[in-house]
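Please decode residue identities from the backbone states below.
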């Protein structure tokens, strides 16, 4: 029996009472599990734990082969989240981040640094009280560091455009056309250098935040082949409107 810590990314209903859940685990990377009978009338409390970015302790039967769906014997909350399940803004951010990670992460190998980053940022989102409206942008900017295409230099007045194709700030708009304009590049540079507590002081207009969000998703698509569109993006933008 495998005992793991997991982060829920996505789930779909299966039959009348079961779920198929996609998790990112501490020891085995991304895994897919069949959860039998968890949607029955007496199991609602358990099924409520299978929500995006919920943190679980799980016991699962070993996989018969790599990539095969596994059966989960037991699961429980490893860290009870205090506000994320009940705050509509945090909840929709969790939905969005869960979908992005679901489409980004395919590896079934252990990656302690990435799991630790995700686990820590989920707890930070759950705890934070101000600046929530920028958290998903901050998260995407910082996530690139762990996926191998973090910007290769810092933003400045001289290097004012972000070249999305080559992953660097440059002094002029690139001729290939895949770049962020000056205001969007400046916002990205601010987020890259910010601490979480600084987010409450970032007062970029909503249109500017939405543009940066779309550009960051394009950046991930360019470098990792992430499938688009992100369905929860429209919900996220509506809630933060």
């Amino acid at each position: 029996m495998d005992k793991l810590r997991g982060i829920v990314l996505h789930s779909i209903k299966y039959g009348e009472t079961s779920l198929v859940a996609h998790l990112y685990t501490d020891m085995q990377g991304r895994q897919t599990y069949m959860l039998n009978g968890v949607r029955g009338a007496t199991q609602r409390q358990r099924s409520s734990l299978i929500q995006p970015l919920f943190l679980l302790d799980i016991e699962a039967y070993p996989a018969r082969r790599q990539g095969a769906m596994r059966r989960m014997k037991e699961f429980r909350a490893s860290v009870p989240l205090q506000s994320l399940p009940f705050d509509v803004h945090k909840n929709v951010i969790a939905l969005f981040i869960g979908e992005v990670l679901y489409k980004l992460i395919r590896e079934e190998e252990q990656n302690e640094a990435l799991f630790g980053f995700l686990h820590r940022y989920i707890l930070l989102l759950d705890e934070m009280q101000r600046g929530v409206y920028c958290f998903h942008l901050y998260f995407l900017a910082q996530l690139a560091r762990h996926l191998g295409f973090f910007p290769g230099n810092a933003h400045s007045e001289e290097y004012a455009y972000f070249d999305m194709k080559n992953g660097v700030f440059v002094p002029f708009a690139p001729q290939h056309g895949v770049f962020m304009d000056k205001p969007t590049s400046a916002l990205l540079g601010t987020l890259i250098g910010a601490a979480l507590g600084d987010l409450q002081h970032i007062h970029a207009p909503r249109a500017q935040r939405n543009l940066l969000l779309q550009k960051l998703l394009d950046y991930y698509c360019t470098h990792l082949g992430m499938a688009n569109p992100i369905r929860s993006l429209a919900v996220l933008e509506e809630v933060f409107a």
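Observation: Residues 206-224 form the longest helix (19 residues).
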